[in-house]
Amino acid sequence: MNAIEVHDLKKNYRIVRKEPGIAGSLKHLISPRYEELSAVKGITFQIPQGESVAFLGANGAGKSTTIKMLTGIMQPSGGTIKVMGKDPFSDRIRNAKKIGVVFGQKTQLWWDIPVAETFRLLKKIYEIPEEQYRKNMEKFSNILGLQEFMDQPARKLSLGQRVRADLAAALVHDPPILFLDEPTIGIDVAVKQKIYGFLKEINRERKTTILLTSHDMKDLESLCDRLIILEKGEILFDDPMDRLFEIYGEGLSLEEIIIELFEHRRVS
Amino acid sequence: MKKYLAYLRCGFLDGCAYRQYFITGMLANFIQAVVLFFVWKSIFHYQEVISGYTWEIMKQYVFVSFLCNSIFSMGFEMDAAERIIKGDIILDLLKPVSYRTMLFFRMLGTAGMEFAVTFVLVGGIYLCINGVQYLDFFRTVLFLIALLMGMGIKFCLQYLFSLLCFYTDNAYGVSKARETLTNFFSGALVPLAMFPGILREAVNFLPFRGIVYTPCCIFIGFFSIRECIFNIFLQFIWILVLGGLGTLLGKKAFSVISMYGG
Q1: What radius of gyration, in Å, describes the C-alpha atoms of chain A?
Q2: Please, are residues B146 and B41 in contact by the beta-carbon 8 Å criterion?
Q3: Which domain holds residue A212?
Q4: What is the DSSP letter of A58?
Q5: What is the pLDDT of residue A265?
Q6: B3 → chain A, closest CA residue
Q7: Do B91 and A103 count as a contact with CB atoms less than 8 A apart?
Q8: What is the C-alpha separation between A214 and A199, in angstroms, rounded?
Q9: Cβ–Cβ contacts within 10 Å for residue B117, how many?
Q10: pLDDT, tens digit, for every residue of B179-224?
Q11: Pick from B261, B99, B253: nearest CA to A103
Q12: What is the CATH number of the domain that holds A64?
């Protein structure tokens, strides 16, 4: 069964067209001009349960937009999405139970109260049975080292601690699907390793479907079976990771291949 | 329901996080009430009766109206509005809970503590000045019901206004506009009976009077029991209407969420 089915998915944004300088800004106040920008231009793909897929692409390629639509918080401009057989936007609450999400740039931890309280809240809102909650927390604490800062409010955590806690928070209700949007942005190597090791284990043990965007090629390579490369809102490549190496030669690293791919694309 | 009680708890803890902030907020409230008291005192010094109000009545009105308007102050809706503008609202929408109900309980948790302290403080001042001579058990019960209904109306209005941030990008402007409208048309600043002709009639058709004026009139005894019941019923109708509007606008607003959260 496919965990995620996306068909001809589109998203257009309305962006402001402002002329430069003070005159331009004043003009914008009186008669604003807008322009349609299509961030995602009709992409189609399926992801079976248990697969781990990397989304790759330059900044602004449409990765985050796609993830936001898959998580049900953003309405597509066109096309259809099925997550576990349901439309995530119109069925937001039910969809939310089945997914875990980490946005590396944001945190779902409560800013001013101890991290432990956030977890307590999650236990209640996802209606996690006591036994499962205790087991998960024990496991996450061991691997991610949460206990050292559980009694601290989120505002006092370092970035690495925060991301570790956010990751545990996204997984505490055992979601079958996990979305990660640049989870390791700005994270040091040691923590990064910890996080990817953890994700690998989760993916293997629980058959959690993982959809991940990142710019860390090395980590993507070790974690993900499949690669979807987006460029300017379209799918440029969608195949198993190995296939990329078959095409471009085994000698190259993923990073080199990607650079070449983008360069090549730009020329042609 | 358990889910939302958990939000209430976190909201409460959040409200307790900053002691200085809390104390300053309380102090500001206190000063406001006292200032209003002396303004009215000096006005009644020159004129004994204004639109049927005497100083004896006004001494009650000042504190009761202050109490009615003190829950869910502007800061809370600004919080919600700012989350919309910064895009943090997406984190709220990723939870398997109704956004509006969640917001209500979170705000109630944070505001609850502040309201409890205000209740004791303002209630204490009221008793010092007026004593227990005007208190009537049945009226007080009706007043408390009307007070809760008033909170409901206020929350519905705040929710509606915070949704406007999806379109306006200005949390302060939207919250300030809501606050000013509420303060004026609810009777928090001036009893509605003192409004001139047409305006006095017009405010009867607005939801704001349910926040302050209705509970105040019930408490002070301007309404007969029949009128009390009718006005509480009216508050209830407004909650349904504003709640319905909130649902409609919410549906529309969440579909334009694309603009936020890069």
Answers
A1: 20
A2: no
A3: 49-267
A4: S
A5: 66
A6: A125
A7: yes
A8: 14
A9: 17
A10: 999 999 999 888 998 998 899 899 999 999 999 999 999 999 999 9
A11: B261
A12: 3.40.50.300
HEC profile of A165-189: HHHHHHHCCCCCEEEEECCCCCCCH
Whether A267 has a pLDDT exceeding 90, the answer reads: no
Chain B CB contacts of A129 below 8 Å: none
DSSP state of A147: G
Q: Where are the beta strands (DSSP E) in chain B?
A: none
In a domain, A125, yes or no: yes
Encoded tokens for B10: 């976190």
> What's the rounded Cα separation, in Å, for the pair A223 and B5?
39
DSSP class of B89: H
Average pLDDT of chain A is: 89
DSSP class of residue B189 equals S
Contact A124 B10 (CB under 8 A): no
Amino acid occupying residue A2? N
pLDDT of residue B262: 42
User: Which pair of structure tokens corresponds to residue B188?
Assistant: 């928090």
| Cross-chain CB nearest to B258 (options A13, A96, A107) | A13
Locus of tokens 């939000």: B7
Residue A1 lies in a domain: no
Q: Is B93 close to A124, i.e. CB distance below 8 A?
A: no
Q: Is residue A115 part of a domain?
A: yes
**Is A82 a domain residue?**
yes
d(CA A210, CA A202): 9
CB pairs below 8 Å between A and B: how many? 77
Kind plus residue range of the DSSP H or E element containing A118:
helix A115-125
Q: What domain count does chain A have?
A: 1
Question: For position B254, what pLDDT does the model report?
Answer: 86
Q: What is the pLDDT of residues A217-250, one digit of tens each?
A: 877 888 899 999 998 899 988 999 888 888 877 7
For the segment B118-131, the average pLDDT, to the nearest whole number, is: 89
Point out the residue among A64, A73, A103 whose CB comes nearest to the CB of B93: A73
CB contacts, 8 Å: A73 with chain B: 90, 93-94, 257
Is the CB of B90 less than 8 angstroms away from the CB of A73?
yes
In a 13 Å sphere around the CA of A246, the CA atoms on its Cβ side amount to 5
Q: Between chains, do A73 and B257 touch, taking CB under 8 Å as contact? A: yes
In the prediction, which pLDDT does A69 show? 93
Is residue A53 within 8 A of residue A47, CB to CB? The reply is: yes
What's the complex ipTM?
0.87
Q: Looking at chain B from residue 12 to 41, which residues have their Cβ under 8 Å from any Cβ of chain A?
A: 13-14, 17-18
Optimal mutation site among B258, B259, B260, interface A, most CBs of chain A within 10 A: B258
Is there a contact between A68 and B261 if contact means CB atoms under 8 Å apart? yes
